[in-house]
Automatic annotation (TrEMBL):
Keywords: Pyridoxal phosphate. SUPFAM superfamilies: PLP-dependent transferases. Belongs to the DegT/DnrJ/EryC1 family. It comes from Candidatus Enterococcus ferrettii. CDD domains: AHBA_syn. This is Aminotransferase. The keyword NAD does not apply. Gene3D superfamilies: Aspartate Aminotransferase, domain 1, Type I PLP-dependent aspartate aminotransferase-like (Major domain). The keyword Protein biosynthesis does not apply. It comes from the Bacteria. InterPro entries: DegT/StrS_aminotransferase, PyrdxlP-dep_Trfase, PyrdxlP-dep_Trfase_major, PyrdxlP-dep_Trfase_small. Pfam families: DegT_DnrJ_EryC1.
Length: 365
C-alpha cells in the first residue's frame, strides 16, 4: 500500500466548489492586494484566535520578523529560540539583527524546556520565541512567568499550531505577538505562501501592517523603512474558504493521532508525550527510535512515506557556523535529529491506511 506523507487532495476535493468560487470572486473584482478579502480574513482569524487584531503577511517567517521589528529588537539584543525548531524561527531573529540564544527542548514533548530558559537570560535578552512544535502548545504558564519577571516580550511561533489550546486559551493569544504560517501543508494552508500576526496591541498591529507595506501608514507616506510582505487577496479568499473547516480538520488529526497512540506497540519506538491541559493539533506525529534510519527504510520499503523534523539542528547548519556550536554542544536537539521520525498524518487518511502504518511499525524489529 502506498501512503504519502501528506496529501492536500481530500480536503481540496471536499472544498472544490468553495475554492473555485473564491478564485472567481477575486478575479471578477480584479483587486488583488489590500482589499476586502484580506480585511475579512484578518477579522475572522483574530476572532478564531481570540485576539483583538490580526495582520496578514506574505508568509510565516515575515510574521515573526515584522513582530520583532515592530518591537525594535535589533543589533545588540538577544532572543531566546528553541534549539529544536524549523530554522525560520531563528532566521527571523537573525534578520532582525539580534543574536539567537538556543535553549534545549524537553525531549518528551520536543518543545522548549521552560526550566532551561532562565539560566540563559542576560541584560541583553529582549524576547523569548516559544514554538508550538508539531502542533503541541508549549508550557505557556512558566514561560509567561519568566517573561514577566524579566520584562521580556514573548513572540509565539504558531506556524504548526493553528487552533491548538493551552488551558482553554488558543495559541497566538498568550504572547505580545503570535506568528502564523499558511504554507500549503500547515494545518490551515493557503494555495501558496501566506502568513499572519496576531496581537492584542493596536499600536503593534498598525506598526506590523505598516512595516509589511513599505513602512507606509497611508498612501505615499512612509514612517518606517519597511519591506513588502502583505497577504494577497487570492490567498485571503482561499483561507476564508478553509478557515470554517479548520476545527474539523484538527479534530480528524487528533483522531488519527489517538489511533497511532493506542495502536503502536513496539518497545523500540517512543511515542510523543502530550502535557496536561492542552489540545494538540498534531501538525506532525513525531516518534523516536534508536534505529531510526533502519525503521525509516523499513517503512519506505513498505510504501509508507516518512519525514524527519529536522535532520540537522540549527546550530549544526552551515549558515550558523559562526556560532561555533559544534557537535555535542546541544545534545538534546542533536539526539532528536538523530532519532526522530514523522509518520503520515493528514485529513482524509483512511482507517485502512492508518492501520497499515501501525501494523508495519509493530512488525519492525
Ligand atoms: C513553516 C514554519 C515557519 C515559516 O513559515 P513560512 O510561511 O514558510 O515562512 C516558521 N516556523 C515554523 C515552526 C514553521 O513550521
Amino acid at each position: 500500500m502506498d501512503i504519502p506523507f501528506v496529501s492536500l487532495k481530500p480536503l481540496e476535493k471536499e472544498l472544490d466548489v468553495d475554492i473555485r468560487e473564491a478564485f472567481t470572486r477575486v478575479y471578477e473584482r480584479s483587486w488583488y492586494i489590500e482589499g476586502s478579502e484580506d480585511a475579512k480574513f484578518e477579522k475572522e482569524f483574530s476572532k478564531y484566535c481570540n485576539t483583538d487584531y490580526c495582520v496578514g503577511t506574505g508568509n510565516g517567517l515575515d510574521s515573526l520578523l515584522l513582530a520583532l521589528k515592530a518591537l525594535e529588537i535589533s543589533e545588540g539584543d538577544e532572543v531566546i529560540v528553541p534549539s529544536n525548531t524549523y530554522i525560520a524561527t531563528a532566521l527571523a531573529a537573525t534578520y532582525a539583527g539580534a543574536k539567537i540564544v538556543l535553549v534545549e527542548p524537553d525531549i518528551r514533548t520536543f518543545n522548549i524546556d521552560p526550566n532551561k530558559i532562565e539560566e540563559r537570560i542576560t541584560k541583553k535578552t529582549k524576547a523569548i520565541m516559544p514554538v508550538h512544535l508539531y502542533g503541541q502548545p508549549c508550557e505557556m504558564d512558566p514561560i509567561m512567568q519568566i517573561a514577566e519577571k524579566y520584562d521580556l516580550h514573548v513572540i509565539e511561533d504558531c506556524a504548526q499550531a493553528h487552533g491548538a489550546i493551552y488551558k482553554n486559551k488558543k495559541v497566538g493569544s498568550f504572547g505580545t505577538v503570535g506568528g502564523f504560517s499558511f504554507y500549503p501543508g500547515k494545518n490551515l494552508g493557503a494555495l501558496g505562501d501566506a502568513g499572519a500576526a496576531t496581537t492584542n496591541n493596536k499600536f503593534l498591529a498598525d506598526k506590523i501592517r505598516a512595516l509589511g507595506n513599505y513602512g507606509s501608514d497611508y498612501k505615499y507616506h512612509h514612517i518606517y523603512k519597511g519591506n513588502n510582505s502583505r497577504l494577497d487577496e487570492l490567498q485571503a479568499a482561499f483561507l476564508l474558504a478553509k478557515l470554517p473547516h479548520l476545527d474539523k480538520v484538527n479534530e480528524e488529526r487528533r483522531r488519527i493521532a489517538s489511533l497511532y497512540m493506542n495502536g503502536i506497540k513496539n518497545l523500540g519506538v517512543v511515542l510523543p508525550y502530550v502535557i496536561e491541559d492542552v489540545e494538540s493539533v498534531w501538525h506532525v506525529f513525531s516518534i523516536r527510535c534508536k534505529d531510526r534510519d533502519t525503521l525509516e527504510v523499513h517503512l519506505n520499503n513498505l510504501g509508507i512515506s516518512t519525514n524527519k523534523h529536522y535532520p540537522t539542528p540549527i546550530h549544526l547548519q552551515e549558515c550558523y557556523k559562526e556560532m561555533k556550536l559544534g557537535n555535542g554542544s546541544l545534545p538534546i536537539a542533536e539526539e532528536i535529529s538523530d532519532t526522530q521520525l514523522s509518520l503520515p498524518l493528514y485529513y482524509g487518511m483512511t482507517d485502512n491506511q492508518i492501520q497499515y502504518v501501525i501494523d508495519c511499525i509493530n512488525k519492525f524489529k
